[in-house]
Amino acid sequence: MSTPDSPKADLAVEIRSLTKRYALPWKRKVLVAVDQLNLTVRRGEVFGLLGPNGSGKSTTLKMLLSLIKPSEGEAWIFGQPVDTIEARRTVGFLPENPYFYKFLNGDETLRFYGGLAGMQGIALDNKIEELIKLVGLENGRDRPLSAYSKGMLQRIGLAQALIHDPELLFLDEPTAGVDPIGSREIRDLIVRLRDMGKTVVFSSHLLEQVQEVADRVAIMSLGKKMVEGSLDELLTVQDRTQFIAQDLSPAAQEEVRKLIEQRGGRNVSVSSPKLSLEQLFLKTVEYERAAQQPGVAKPTNER
Amino acid sequence: MNWYRHRTAIWLALILAAWGTLKVCWEQGIERREAELRFHGYTINRDLRDQLGQGMMLGLLSGFRGVVADFVWLMVTNSWQDKQWFRVKSMVDLSTTLQPRFIPFWDLGGWHLAWNASVDRRNNRDEPNELRRLKEERYWINEGKKIYERGAENNPDSFEIWRSLGLLNDQKLHDYRAAAEAYAHAAAVPGAPVFLERFPGYMLEKAGDDAAALEVYKRLWYLPRDHKVPQFGYDKVEERIRALEAKLKVPREKRVFP
Amino acid sequence: MFESLFRIRAIARNTLTEALRQKVLNILLLFGVIAIVSGFLFANFTLAEQFKFLKDFSIGAMSVFGLLIALMGTAQLLPNEIENRTIYTILAKPVRRSEFLIGKYCGMLALLATTMLLMSIVFVGVILTKERLMINAELRDAQGTNAEMQAMANENIKQIHKEARDPRLIQAILLTYAKLAVVAGLALLISTFATSAIFTVATTFMVYIIGHLESVARAAWLTGGSEVNFAAKIFLGVLSFLVPDMNIYNVIDEIIAGSAVPWSHTLNVLSYTGIFLLILMSVAILIFNEREL
Questions:
Q1: Which of A265, A289, B9, B245 is the most buried (most CB within 10 A)?
Q2: Do C85 and A118 touch (CB under 8 A)?
């Protein structure tokens, strides 16, 4: 596996042609969960990984944590290959619908994960204090996790991911199954984490949430990355221009329109020209799906 | 690349081959040591399986030999109370097969047959023929004796079974020479009670062989020991020597106590 | 290295805490009942029989309960972690998979040690109570009798003492623990590639039973003549290479039956167990490292 140049330590995540295939022997098929993925996440940004269920978001995150081995390709976290223990010192992870140990209370849970990260003593005590406050779980410290609500579990999960003060956070569907208020709190937390200088990579299929907090997004479909970029880049329609003016009379609008047409502008309209992320998402995903439909040779069938 | 991909499999094969060889040798060593220590008195075979039944066999295969033997022994006790003597015998055989190193199985098993079964059969009211009753009594005494003999063979380091064999020869079979021999065996086992040393003498006297009895007592007398220790019972030895020397009219110069 | 031990300890402690909070120790009550019943039910048997029953049934019960925990508990360790996705949060921390597996195993060993220790305490309590009661009975019966009867009572009291305070029981308990450790290790190894806990339990139990026949297979392999055909020989050889000899732990029965078992022999069996467990864990780690979570 030759790499054109060495990984850059200033990139939070660098992924090069990462591929994951699953052999399905009983179906004589190979399922390609992630297909030749290239991706970079810069230090300090909030990165949204978007895609419908089964598009390979979770598989990608699992490969970045070395929970599964890539079939091809490589990935680095702050310049460290992902299958090293060093890479995981700088990463915090919140899995989708986490359960944790239900016989432990909030305090003990954080103590356990802190221990795993090699923390102890007063440093750990202080960190737990700080995180309990950060995620607002003061009322859950002494309660066993079996008595936690979904939102509280998500918050203790976030605290757990933050215990060893990682620079990078992977959040897999952090708002799935959480009520709107809880979901709002989690999004606020993500923004606060960015303000604290953390890099956050999160996956979601809930678009307005991504739109609200992400600096950059990638949209995945059927294991492939369809688009990647900052929200501004992606959502601005490049060949169009928008003027915004206040209190422009209809007559004046007509004048402007004529002027534009005189200068070669076409299809002038006064509607909002920005796509919503949802439109972009549906367009991308539908297009990809439609392209795959005809014919027998699906991309899931490599042989 | 190929080697790299299969490295786990290669490691596995290497570890298992190396360990397997060491393991087999080690286990053989442990087994030899166990044989020296006289463990493992039984092998699992069809006979044993038929006698035990499936539940007990599973217990045996799960490593609960002692518990299984105890259950068999409880059946001995039940059958004894019901006077089912043949069942007692087969259950005694089974428990001693399972745990040949537990002395009470032999000791009590032999006693059940040679004492309880024999007396019960001799006093059998349903059998009018006395000769037949005596024959049955004899049969059970001999069965008990066989148990003792097998037990002693399996447990050369136990004096209890030899002592019981001596008692059986003495009380039931009235074969006092054999009794003397059994007691001598019992006394020779390290850790046996010292008073057993004198028993061969008593038995030989009972057999009428006073000269041999005197030799036994004299050998004891000349052992390099402190004669004042009460456990050795030298007062009794002295008494027997004096009595036998008088009885046999041993010439004065050859007497221990002239 | 030190950090690694620190993480292993954290995982082990967590495993132990979880098991204890699931009230695994409730089986102590059941054990107590068995020990007390087998201690006092057989009062009209001889001294030697009574103590043998008490020891056999108590240590047998320890073994059975220990086996249940080692088998069921260990078989569920990995499936539970994977199902609850807690393994993702653990392995996402700077924790090696080997550390995770060793931590889990050590937690199980600690749980088994705790259970065995508490059961042993109950057992010793019962046996010492029995000793007290029996000695009191002997003294009562001997009161005001002749010298011979009193000498006999003294003999009996000596025997009661010897049976009740037999230091060899420590060897028996250690060997029982070693046996449980092997079963837990086997279950953990099998669960690294098993797809369900039921499969792990069934397979481990099968290996446990076959382990009691391994010595027979080994003998047939090493000394079997022409009556053992080639295919059978290979099968027996593979069996002897892979399956542990569980019969070596039957020394426990010899100890209770009163055989002199030298400590050197016990230590030999314990070191065999130790090395076997090291191999077992290495293989488990190799397989677990390859596993896709």
A1: B245
A2: no
